[in-house]
Model the fold of this input.
Amino acid sequence: MKIEIIYATTKSQDLVTIEIAANSTILDALLSSNVLAKYNLNLNKISVGVFGKIAQNINSYRLYDQDRIEIYRELICDSKAKRKALVVQYHKKKFKI
Done:
């Protein structure tokens, strides 16, 4: 089976295509791809999905040919809090508060 594994940082995106045996799991694919070691990722601290849907158990999730595994990073900040901080900063500048 041919599987794609995608991981993105703030500076780059990495797409790795691997060949694995039929009935392989997400964990099997991640371990054979070397992506975890390349980016020093801890399986306990990341989320993983297939085609945008988070996989709850990577040990038992069976892959199909042409599946795309996506490795999700932790968010650096909450987007709502970031927007709110930008609005406050804008008003301070505009009204010289």
In short: The chain has a mean pLDDT of 89. The chain is about 30% helix and 25% strand. Residues 79-95 form the longest helix (17 residues).
